[in-house]
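Task 17 of the worksheet. Students: predict the tertiary structure of the chain below and write it out as structure tokens. Keep your answer in the requested format; marks are given for formatting as well as content.
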Amino acid sequence: MTHHEKVDATCGKNGTKEFWSCSKCSTKFADENGNAKIDDIVIPATGNHNFTTDDYKIIVEPTCNSTGSKAYYCLDCAAVKSPYVEIPRVAHSYGEWKVVKEATCSEAGEKERVCTVCEKLSEEERPADYVEKATISATGEHTYENVWTNEGDVHSRVCSVCASENSKETADHSYGEWVVTKKATCKETGLKVRKCSCGAEKTEVIEKSENHNFKIIPGYAATCTSTGLTDAYECILCGFKVESQTIPVNDGAHTDKNGDGYCDGCNYEYHSHDGCICHSDNIFSKIIRLICTIFSWIARTRITCCSDMEWYPGINMSFLS
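Model answer:
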């Protein structure tokens, strides 16, 4: 007798009962002793699938722009369970962020990035969230230009972007170089000013100058008989005067405009050079002086016997010496 194990029926496949068969006649028995003959050994298929609960087959792969589907299957016959289970879309594959609106000191900005998969699709196929947007926080950093408003002791400025009162900052004035608006003289003080870019001004008095603007009051030279005066000076602005000084009588300031050999003012005789032969005490010198005097009287002009007195007008008699 040959023993046949029981084969359980499945959802779609018949099973067989446990039985024994005669090796000579193939008769089937329900026991190993061959006492109970059996004709029907088929166990009908159950029709109940043994579906999985944690394992499944992917029917449609999900993408970032469409859902997918999966199905649980029968462990016995591999049949799939209907309806399919939806698989949510996968996350987008976003590219780099691009700034759409720059953030300022007081206003938030905006940036966005696009899914690199969905952007290849047509407009109709793209899901609404294929573009991701995000807010850029306000910077809080104000932008200032060199434009100040005068506020008396200080000046101020506000942010050139938001112009809010919260952005206001103050600073000391920044004055430029001094500019003279009124020049100081010896008579009056002057004035100088320097300005800040905000319009504020700072002025200072310039002390009177010690430099006078003199006009000359001409003096005159001393002569052999009278004193002279130096030039005097008088400031044309304030009237300050530098008085003239007396020049003593000049014993050497003789003049001989008529050429008679004698000073016009004091009758000083010009012919007085030391060492001249005509001034010696010998008889010859006395004769020469006499001749010069006679000829000077006759000619009515100065006649000199000295070669170094040629600047006097008259006749040079130096050949006599």
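Marker's comment: The first strand starts at residue 2 and ends at 4. The longest helix spans residues 283-299.
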